[in-house]
Amino acid sequence: MEQKKQKPTAENETLIVSRRIQRVSLHLAPVPRPLHEHDTQEQLGLFPCARSAKLEVETEKLSLYMRGKYREIQEKIYEYFHARPELQTPLEISKDEHRELCWRQMYGLIKEAGIRPLKYVVEDPGKYFAIVEAAGAVDISLGIKLGVQYSLWGGSVINLGTKKHKDKYFEGIDSLEYPGCFAMTELHHGSNVQGLQTVATFDPITDEFIINTPSDGAIKWWIGNAAVHGKFASVFAKLMLPAHDVKGVSDMGVHAFIVPLRDLKTHQALPGIEIHDCGHKVGLNGVDNGALRFTSVRIPRDNLLNRFGDVSRDGQYTSSLPTINKRFAATLGELVGGRVALASSSTSVLKVANTIAIRYSLLRQQFGPPNQPEVSILDYQSQQHKLMPMLASTYAFHFATSYLVEIYSQMKTTHAAHLVGDVHGLSAGLKAYVTSYTAKSLSVCREACGGHGYAAVNRFGILRNDHDIFQTFEGDNTVLLQQVSHISFYCVLA
Ligand SMILES: Cc1cc2nc3c(=O)[nH]c(=O)nc-3n(C[C@H](O)[C@H](O)[C@H](O)COP(=O)(O)OP(=O)(O)OC[C@H]3O[C@@H](n4cnc5c(N)ncnc54)[C@H](O)[C@@H]3O)c2cc1C
């Protein structure tokens, strides 16, 4: 039955309006106590914290504890950049200048401050993540540029290659003589890595692989370090072997190959290599992302990163893993370090945003009881509801990602097989959860600081733009969460 609408009368309209005004006034000039004992409007009351008695916290001890065991190397990085103001990123900077500055920041860190990240990628991954975290606090582009050089390019050579690759490339990568890229993503395939189309065909006559981009969709896209600085790339391509059947080749699945991109002396692109610039991005403009096309690029057979599969001089394929799927899983499994780094770097971004928003909220005052000083905006429950659960989550993420770093380091240094499943599941889950949470929180923090949160100098805009892509690279968050549910499902069955 249709309900009859009550006709508005002057009397009930006045009642509604005065109730509304009363509610709003509780926000504007809140009273410290509820109006009545059982009044639900109590929630809108003032919940003083800014002017309440200070808690006795030993801040120095807490800070020392929270900075953890790698604070020394982080302080060394901060001190280096404090002493070099010309290396600090200004607010207004063009893409090209930002790329050059980011390179100089990285170069200074390695050559002047004497930081050697690749050593730690291998021996003490926790220390390596701490270096990336500190560099990211200087400029997130710098943290990502380091990640491309050491975790992606360096990590792929170290983890997917064998001794001959380490002997040949380790020093050059660590010292920045060999700046490099990690070329996995293609224009048509990002998350679906097994769908990659680039091919590496073995030529038994010359003992070489021939790298080809068979279509526009197979152009390597978004490749960090490619547009300007990279001299090498680890290129992910389908390994093709000659076969005596109608097809003429057999596809052994996706493998990684070291491909020189530019001449070491002249920096000119090498024959068969076409390099394009992916252009200005929403953020991270200190990183030079580029596109790569290969036309019959010949590389020695030794450039196959052959830890999980090898090709002999006479073109025979050998692997300790029996199927393409198992080799693919092992290859990608070696690359989880990037996810661990992103989960921990995203937590650092959240720490910075929290600190800015909470400090500001404590000092900023708006409204107050009649004839009394205005109150701190942190005294409003609405402000507390925005910021305090976020602060608690930041602590939780700090401990969760520290644990992840710990078990990842154990797995890498002791080769403990029983940790592989945990590291895989936790790194995928935490990377996805933390980066999504931080991306949303950056907007909340900006809003919590009102108009002043919008001034570029207060950093929310830069943090938000630079961090946003953390949700996509190193595994799109939706796809990663599907992996987590898949892993959990099999854990339940086991
Ligand atoms: C700044 C930047 C730097 C990068 N650096 C590098 C680099 O150095 N090297 C490199 O190789 N790559 C790099 N990348 C590429 C990055 O890794 C890819 O963008 C990422 O893997 C996602 O792939 P995609 O862009 O093709 O998105 P897609 O895979 O096309 O995803 C698009 C959307 O589809 C959804 N989707 C996809 N599959 C599924 C599914 N199965 N179920 C449900 N939803 C799905 C995703 O959730 C997403 O929302 C970089 C990208 C950027 C933007």
List key phrases describing it.
six-stranded mixed beta sheet; 494 residues; elongated; three-stranded antiparallel beta sheet; Butyryl-Coa Dehydrogenase, subunit A, domain 1; disordered N terminus; Butyryl-CoA Dehydrogenase, subunit A, domain 3; 14 helices; single chain; Butyryl-CoA Dehydrogenase, subunit A, domain 2; alpha+beta
Describe this structure in words.
Strands 1, 2, 3, 5, 6 and 9 form a six-stranded mixed β-sheet that branches. The protein has a three-stranded antiparallel β-sheet with strand order 4-8-7, with no helix packed on it. Strand 10 and strand 11 form a beta hairpin. The chain contains 14 helices and eleven strands. The chain has three domains: 67-174, Orthogonal Bundle (Butyryl-Coa Dehydrogenase, subunit A, domain 1); 181-322, Beta Barrel (Butyryl-CoA Dehydrogenase, subunit A, domain 2); 337-493, Butyryl-CoA Dehydrogenase, subunit A, domain 3 (Up-down Bundle). Helices cover 48% and strands 12% of the residues. It has 494 residues and is an alpha+beta fold. Flavin-adenine dinucleotide (FAD) is lined by residues 148, 152, 182-185, 190-191, 222-224, 281, 284, 289, 469, 472-473, 476, 478-479. Belongs to the acyl-CoA oxidase family. It is found in: Peroxisome. It holds the Pfam family ACOX_C_alpha1. One of its GO terms (cellular component) is peroxisome.
